[in-house]
Specification:
mainly beta; two-stranded antiparallel ribbon; 1 helix; 6% helix; elongated
Length: 62
């Protein structure tokens, strides 16, 4: 493979940290709890998709 298209790696302290982290995410609307204790960690350099049925709380989580 030509060097112009070889993947490169970055060596810095941030590369080991997740790109997205949420711990204990909770959301309620009045007495209605819609998210309760959601933990999420997405590593840097990954493609992440949040899938679920309608009303599962995807948009609220984002």
């Amino acid at each position: 493979m030509p060097s112009s298209v070889m993947p490169t790696t970055r060596k810095d302290d941030r590369s080991s940290q997740p790109a997205i982290t949420a711990n204990g995410l909770r959301k309620s609307y009045g007495d209605k709890v819609v998210l309760d204790g959601v933990d999420l960690s997405v590593p840097r350099g990954t493609v992440f998709a949040l899938l679920g049925p309608n009303g599962a709380g995807k948009t609220t989580a984002v």
